[in-house]
Each structure stands twice: as C-alpha cells, then as structure tokens.
Design goal:
Elements: H1 4-21, H2 26-61, H3 72-106, H4 112-120, E1 121-123, E2 129-131, H5 133-164
Antiparallel strand pairs: 1-2
Length: 180
Amino acid sequence: MLFPFHFAAWKVAFTSMSEMVNAPSEEAQAQLIKKWRESTLSQLANVEFIGALISAAVVGSFSWPTLYTISTIPYTMIRIAWYNSLIFAIVAIAVGMQQSVFLVRVGCVSNSNMLIRELLTFEMPSGQRVPRFRQVFIWQTAVGLLEWSIYFWLGGFVVFIWDSTLILRENQQKSDQVVS
C-alpha cells in the first residue's frame, strides 16, 4: 500500500456510492445522491483551482535563475519531473471540468437519480446494487492526477535542492551547506 490515506479515500468513495444506491427508501436515496453530487462538485472545484495553482507554480519554477546553473543530469531529472507535474495538473483540471459539467447537466434531467444510479453501480442477482470499480476509479481520477502532479513537482524540487546545495559532493564549501 502506497499510503494508508489512499486506501481510505478509495474505501469512502466505494462506500458512499454503495450506500446511496442501497438506501432504504426512495427519499433517502434521492437525498444521498444529491449529497454525493454536491460533494463531488465541491471536490472537483478544489481540484480545478489547486490544479491551476500547481500549474502556475511549476511554470514559475522553470524561471528560477539558479535552475540553469546546476549540473546536467539533475537538471534533466528536474525538467522531466516538472514537465510531468505540469501535464498531470492540466489533465486533472480537464478531467475535473468534464466531470463537473456532467454532474451539472445530469442534474437538469428529470430522471437524474436513476441515471446516476445506473451509471455508478450494477445490480447483483440478490437485488443489491454494487459500485462499478471503473466508476470508482473514474471519479477518483482528477484527485489522483493532482496528487501525482504534486509528487512530481516535489520530486523535482528535492533534486533541485540536493544539487543546489551540493550535498555530499567532494568540492562542497561551507557556503554551499544548508545550516539551521
């Protein structure tokens, strides 16, 4: 397991889908589906906003003057990481926007709850509805892409700091060290 909170996020996404379509009454189901749509729209709005901030931070990072003074291999690693970060952030924004548009538009349809229920889950022979794994995955994609965008930027930043401070180099001077 990469991180325990990744498992928790997937479990909550799966459980919320399962509970909303298996609610004891039509009224409870409609209320849970409405809450799911609203919370998902809020989550996607955060992804879109933070994705734009990350994109701006990545683009700004490329303008750091000291970036061009570091050695070739770390410079290449940093560029690869930061370009990946930029791509993941932009794709997260695009996925989030598409999903937001869908959720807003499906809310304008008279049978929106049934459409969401049919899209997200399938019916078992026992009559219980179970979330489709690919739907859980799809609705977690924007957040996951944004997370990886942040990880790639941080990875490049760690390499940048490592090379900029000449950590563990033979020609390291006292002035090159980060001292607390």
